[in-house]
Specification:
Helix content: 40-55%
Number of strands: 0
Largest sheet: none
Oligomer: single chain
Length: about 90
């Protein structure tokens, strides 16, 4: 499984966060049988270790009107910049 290296509780926490990143510590605790304080400590530890890097929101452009802004990063060698710019 892709969560190897984490104990069973951390794996369950990660799975719940994957399903819903806005789930409360209390709800996680109820589902896996530990306290809200313990959930918070485990999530903070996972963040500190870099296991959890960020939380994100996915917008469905079909559900909104108007323009959608997008930001991305491209890494290239300086001598390829002109070619990359032309392709974009």
């Amino acid at each position: 499984m892709y969560l190897d290296g984490l104990d069973e509780l951390d794996q369950k926490i990660i799975q719940l966060l994957i399903e819903n990143a806005r789930i409360s510590y209390s709800d996680i605790g109820e589902k896996i049988g530990i306290s809200r304080v313990a959930v918070k400590a485990r999530i903070q530890s996972l963040e500190k270790k870099g296991v959890i890097e960020e939380y994100t929101t996915i917008i469905n452009p079909q559900k909104i009107s108007g323009a959608v802004s997008c930001y991305f990063e491209i890494e290239t060698k300086p001598n390829n910049l002109s070619q990359v710019t032309d392709i974009l």
